[in-house]
Hints:
By secondary structure, this protein is α/β, with parallel strands linked by helices. Helices cover 40% and strands 22% of the residues. It contains 24 helices and 27 strands. α3 crosses α13 and α23 crosses α24. The longest helix has 26 residues.
Amino acid sequence: xxxxxxxxxxxxxxxxxxxxxxxxxxxxxxxxxxxxxxxxxxxxxxxxxxxxxxxxxxxxxxxxxxxxxxxxxxxxxxxxxxxxxxxxxxxxxxxxxxxxxxxxxxxxxxxxxxxxxxxxxxxxxxxxxxxxxxxxxxxxxxxxxxxxxxxxxxxxxxxxxxxxxxxxxxxxxxxxxxxxxxxxxxxxxxxxxxxxxxxxxxxxxxxxxxxxxxxxxxxxxxxxxxxxxxxxxxxxxxxxxxxxxxxxxxxxxxxxxxxxxxxxxxxxxxxxxxxxxxxxxxxxxxxxxxxxxxxxxxxxxxxxxxxxxxxxxxxxxxxxxxxxxxxxxxxxxxxxxxxxxxxxxxxxxxxxxxxxxxxxxxxxxxxxxxxxxxxxxxxxxxxxxxxxxxxxxxxxxxxxxxxxxxxxxxxxxxxxxxxxxxxxxxxxxxxxxxxxxxxxxxxxxxxxxxxxxxxxxxxxxxxxxxxxxxxxxxxxxxxxxxxxxxxxxxxxxxxxxxxxxxxxxxxxxxxxxxxxxxxxxxxxxxxxxxxxxxxxxxxxxxxxxxxxxxxxxxxxxxxxxxxxxxxxxxxxxxxxxxxxxxxxxxxxxxxxxxxxxxxxxxxxxxxxxxxxxxxxxxxxxxxxxxxxxxxxxxxxxxxxxxxxxxxxxxxxxxxxxxxxxxxxxxxxxxxxxxxxxxxxxxxxxxx
Length: 687
């Protein structure tokens, strides 16, 4: 490392003066490595993606020579790195060989640990020194918010980009990472014109995220040249190496490329446009940047195809899988490496945190809830996510047969050729019947399930239960429209039915490509993707979840039943009266009793991550005892009573995101803003 550092210093010393730009280019771009990470959501929605990102960086940086983890990386922006380097070297004039040797000896340890990170509103660029390596595959596959990643080609303010600059950066990139086959590499501009007309079915997933990095190509320029003309010139300049996507339907363009280059490498050069981070990071500043990266991996975790909308569903209170995945990851740098980490969600619902925890082989996970239906929801979701392609296709055919010619089929003569399978019709009629019985016990925004109701549901087939969850979604989500007489049952059911069909088709497509998957590590699988290699967690842990020892962890249980010193991490989203209708006294009592129970259950060195409401956008009032400021004081006071103290670990972050520390925010702009509190604690007696 010192030899490489001295060489970079020598290359950057011109006329006795250190040129910081030259050193940066030689140290990071020529000899080191640089990567782009694209997020699913922008900073407008949450800053959890940044916190998760730096946790994953800490977990995946290693020394090339020894393979040992880099335990104390220092994260810094490129601007701050250059300023610090310039200031550090002001004391050395002339820069002869002896001065360079002194600089290397004095500052090699510090410079060797500095990872340069430049943040944008929906992406991040990382520059890694030559003696270190970053496992971007593991980062992508295990993350909640990373959409895709790959080598950086260039990132530059759009007002400083020229056609010649793009050509020079493409030439340098292809020289370093040449096309390994006789085919070409695909170059695709992520445009509104070519993508937005065809991806509206996934608009809720793209809003305030990937939609924001699309380019309006009809109005885009590079210098005085339109981007359209620049692409034409790039096509001519790199005709033997690069295939520039044609305008139009993006899937057709990809199919045409695949047919023409069947042996092409699984990589794509993407051009996107992102904004700089404004003050406070939540909103972008006025600066726009073209970012070009060589996509190597895309995260196709099946959970994220459904996110907040898993098939087994009983209420609005589910947190997104992307968010839960990020919460697990921000806890990982502080897991105890000497034992299996026990993660618990005592308000487990449909098992969101549980599924994110079992992605890791070294984790034990528990999910329980007082709701009698929670255990069955978790089992049914587990069954769906571990189903084979054939099983999913059979389920899709049954569910799809409920609709014919755009209408709900519920009763036709059994001899009719178009009659759906009897089990499907009978399942729908049974599901609507059970919903009718539950309706008399309905609260304002959800339904009360008794143990008898759940026992009745459990006796039915998996298909019938999936149909029931579909009926339940239509009833709960469509209730306001029915009350306003603005819609009817059939329209509401058709909407939820179409959503489920679409998600199942996406999951089947993943399973179809997943058949030839390759186990890259004990936690990560890769398989064929549309534009690069796809990756996802190996999900070997569900085998553990089906044995008798784990079944008890899904039973109906109270948070007060947590055993002292039984877990390392509690991650939970407790009820707080926003999408539920619990009695205020009952809810207040729950919070007053739950916090001490959770704190006693956490081992010394453990963590508590708790979601709570911060601001209502709907007009619905929030109880004061769920306010994050109130909860912070409550946790601090009760921790002392439980013989624990709350810690605040210090770790390096770039200046632009130094506010990315607890509490984190997560926005649902039509409903509420959540705050996520994160506490580290240890027993006072262990000091």
